[in-house]
Design brief:
By secondary structure, the protein is an alpha+beta fold. Helices cover 48% and strands 14% of the residues. The protein is built from ten helices and seven strands. The longest helix has 24 residues, at 148-171. It is globular and about 60 Å long. 28% of the residues are buried.
Amino acid sequence: MVTVERQSSLNSEICAVDSRPRFMQTMKHVGREFSFEHATVMIAPTSDDALLAPLVLESTISAEFVREFDRYRFLRHCPVIPKMNYSVVPHCWTILKSGGAATVVYPVKMATLMQRYALVTSVIFPMNSTDGSRFFLRFDGSRCLLSQPELNELGMIALHLFDVFDTLRRNQPASPSLLSIRELEVLRWTAQGKTSIEIGQILSLSDHTINAYMTNAIRKLDCVNRTQLVAKAIRLKLIA
């Protein structure tokens, strides 16, 4: 399809999105138009994050891949994340050799896992919400690297996608009942000024596990960080 026609067609489809399930159908369609098999929306990781699963909001990637990824705690060894933490520029890479060398070198076990699930070429578009939240729109597959014109085109479409997603996200009411007993317990200690290490000692859990509970709570209450989470939890009377 000619680029202008494809953009027009996809933008019309994006404009018609009125729910999260329909959003993911459209995002998956966008990915397929650029020969990507998978599409993901996730919270941008921070230095406190150790697990991928709590960060993934929507994805077509196998849940088994995410579980195995987290089993080995690969998130903190991912060479792409440090490059994206403070960037607003899209980043496209492959773990396959291109012109003599891969564009990103992953640890061997991580690269093997990604190849097994055909996640060999990827592109991330960093997005900042109007409320300060930071997200990644990501496409993965087994195609070659995007050309610059393709990257430019997909970047414009990704901006439109995120605008719709962010509107749906901000208009979706919070669901305090979704917080587990353990998440509430960790939240209460956080509100009292305890660090993850201190809470872990109190609850006989690792600080990585505490961080995972916190990340889940942040996602469920649609917050950006712990400070906003505590403030919102107090406002919703989840904690005193």
